[in-house]
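quick one before i forget lol
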Amino acid sequence: MKKIRYICILLVLSVLIGFAAPHARALDDPGVDTTKAVILVAEKGSDETVLYTKNADERMYPASLTKIMTVLLAIEAVEAGTVKLTDMVTAQPGFDFDMIIGGSSVYMVTGETMSLENLLYCAMVASANEVCNVIAEYVDGSISGFVEQMNLRAAELGCVNTHFTNTHGLPDANHYTTARDFVRILKEASNHELFMEISNTIKYVVPDTNMAAERTLENTNSLINPTNPIYPGDYGYEYARGVKTGHTSDAGYCLATTAEKDDVRLLCILMGSDSYTMEDGSIYYGHFADARRLFQWAFDNFSYREIVKSTEIVADMPVIMGADAQTVAIRPSVSINALLPNDVDVNSFERAVTLFPTQAEDKTSLTAPVSAGQTVGEIRISINGQLYGVAPLVTSTSVELSRVQFMKGQLAETLRRPAVIFTFWTLMLLFFGYLGLVIRYRLKRRAYQRRLAAAKQIRLDLEDEEDELRYERRVRSSAVAKQSLVMEPESYRKKQEDAVDEPTRVTGETVPVQDPRQAGEPDAPAEAPELPAEPTKPISEPEPPAEPTKVVNETEPPAEPTKVVTADEAGDGPSRSPAPAEPPADPTREMEIRDPMEEPTRVNEPIDPRETSRAIPRIPDEDDEAGNGSGPRDYYSEFFENKE
């Protein structure tokens, strides 16, 4: 139990100690004490990281570092083809007008001729002041014009606190720069292979010329040439590469140098360094000592590390109208590497993802088709406000376009256009207006059809009544005809005609006719009296009575024929015409049938459509209700006119 208790206590203590310990130790200061202005920049490919600065923006005299700009412009002219390294250049009179006694020189004189390549070595390796004027005059045509080009090129490189008044760097109040500006010039110059080849040369032999013997040049940069007679001392550094030293009483000791290790290149500018004598009698040169110390400190404490991998998925972007995917993964197009302190955790960096606006409505979605590698944004890596890298963001895969989604999108976009919206609502208003007119027309048509059906029914009823009236008239006509036949039977009328015809033709006397019933005919009617001479009207055309027609009951038996009494039968003298017998009383005499129009009906006379139309309702014309007809009309007048 005690062992378990001790183990638990030890675990708790170890955890507490772990929490109390710092996550990373702070970098030690490199200890640059003898130099006023310093900047140390690390480069790898296109990445650039400032590792150390000290008074980097303070104006300083560059001294012979100026020759870096002079040689850079000459090499650019060679690369441009305006001049050649093999061109023989002659020192013109007055080229040494601004020289001072005691300055670095190869003692070139007026009229001396050497190649442009040898002049460049004299300027960089031996730091000859007068040679810089010879180069400037040959490349540009004049020294002042060349100096002007130096200032223009510095501005192009981003130098904001730099101004040149000469080609060599001898003291001048208006000849100045800063460590931050000059590291830009050094960076550009170190990108030219010819420049680095010349500046990294330890010794160079210039052949004899037309006016001087052979010259041997030796580099004064103790980092790459520790045994040089100008700055002796143990300052050599195995990774150092070039570039140039400088010194005046006003500028102090200056140095521009580089170092390369594991594909990392360090650029270092030191200005205003001091020197002093050591106890052993040797001279301590601060610019060499500080440069070597900075290089060692950077390589020991920094390393290039991959902060963001090019295969890392940063985010997913929505895709509109995609056929096989609704999102697409995005990643950095390149890895982001930075020279970081070894104790810095790469996960502590801040990642700022910026997506470029798209053509979609939300400005953050992609519209299919999407191709792989399409740039959609960028990612920025920083820590404590210091930017360490920027990389474009690209799509990792492609997304095909969905035809159906595309058509839907096009339709939706079309329907959102103001002209289409206006046209749609206009058509809708016209449609509903037309629909209202159709409904109104249907309602009115139905009402009209109902009225028309009612009118037709009325017409049919009137026609039925009319048929009944015609039938009644035919019945009455038949009854009158039958009554006439009873009063004047055919046999009686024939005998009468015979009796009258024959005697009259002989004697002209009237012979009485024998009554058939007296001759033994039981059913013969009594002897009829002499009929008047008035001719008998045709039976088939009886005259209609003047008075209102009486209804004759068809079920009533026919009236008995009128009996004619002769004079012999009466026994009182000569024969005489009997008084017409009154017809029997008609039980239906009082049932007087009148026309529905309350007009007397005349038998066997055609019906006047003008009279009938008064009883038939007048139906308004369908067109008249719509406002297009000629007014009301009689729908049945044509029927009756055709009937007539």
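fyi The mean pLDDT is 78.
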